[in-house]
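Q: What would this chain look like folded?
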Amino acid sequence: MKQLNVDVAVIGGGTAGLGAYRAAKLTTPNVVMIEGGSYGTTCARVGCMPSKLLIAAADAVHQIERAPGFGVHPAGKTIVNGREVMARVKRERDRFVGFVLEGVGSIPTADKIQGYARFIDDNTLQVDQHTRIVAQRIVIATGSRPSWPAQWNQLGDRLIVNDDVFNWDDLPRSVAVFGPGVIGLELGQALHRLGVKTSVFGIGGAVGPLTDSAVREYAAKTLGEEFTLDPDVKVDIMQREGEKVFIRYQDRHCQTQEIVVDYVLAATGRRPNVDNLGLENTSLALDAKGVPQADRLTMQTSVPHIFIAGDASNQLPLLHEASDQARIAGQNAGSYPEVNPGLRRSALSVVFSDPQIAMVGSTFRELSQKFSACGCFEVGEVSFENQGRSRVMLRNKGILHVYGEQGTGRFLGAEMIGPDVEHIAHLLAWAHQQQMTINQMLDMPFYHPVIEEGLRTALRDLQAKLKLGEAEAERCQHCPGE
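A: My prediction, written as structure tokens:
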């Protein structure tokens, strides 16, 4: 068996692994990256990029279908060629993956170890049966994978995950999507618009990442008007019948419903890939889900020379978060024992549904828990239904809630659904990271006519509700929820 002694070993060759490897390499030359599967990223292969390609095709169909609202009537029936749609998705997906692999190809061959790593102890890794590595520092960047209830396995190849969708050669006739989170909503709506009979189901009423009940209910109603979306069902029977799946369920109104579909798409969450790493052979402190606990500013675990980054950390499974964590973990692994906190940006997430859903900063749930005893935050609101630019474009659906702190007037966060709110969310994330107040945000320019004028309306509504001044700030500073 081959023996290696290295300064830093990075386990994983995806977004976080590649980022951590490059960051560590800046301060120490003796770094290896271990990958058991295909090099590349979840985003490029089966995540953000191929899903946006499918959504783009769906949006093209939707633009044609809503043209009559402007007095424009396309001639003839719109035909969706599923094979052509999926051919473009796969072709462009492979192009994005190719760019990633070009970067991997530039890494010295000696730094890339092919195989699956397991801990022997806090400093020793064994890669398959061919290499044993003694590393002074280790970065865990093993990513995550889809998860679903074990009993669904009896569906065989009728059970799919998002990875499988992007390998289709053609579109199916019908799909039941379980999990109205980011993946479920994006793929569910896209497939519906491309002519696939689609039903999206959830448990407990959740819609995307939303925690503000008013915004969540608006989202459920609005999206549910376009395709079947029931965020709170109870499944009585789900069984394979030949090449189909039969489902009997109780809907949110306690009515029995039955459907037969070609596939069940499990979008019920992801689990960190840490269960086969031999963590039981280490002294790492694990959380309730078996994931190493880590400081979010340094990505350092309870074992000082072991760091973790990306989806494996079970923090925020988003590409920009994985990149930030990778940089922090890699830099600290490379410079250890010197460990420094890295820049953690304001929380920002987007669901590319239509209307889009977005979250910025602290969530409504977090603020409600933090200020539960003193009511030290207020909510500003705007509806996009009568907002000028939104009506001009016939995209006037949505609601935006912005949150501000009593006393200081500081902007705390926002939850929203609306037309192209990815852009509003970015503006708000910048304002949140700069710790701006509502008054300062209202001093910024707003052009006319733009959708962002709706944001100004929400900020004005919030400004009118806030109680400012030292006395109020002092009261909230000592809020029991702090």
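The longest helix spans residues 82-105.
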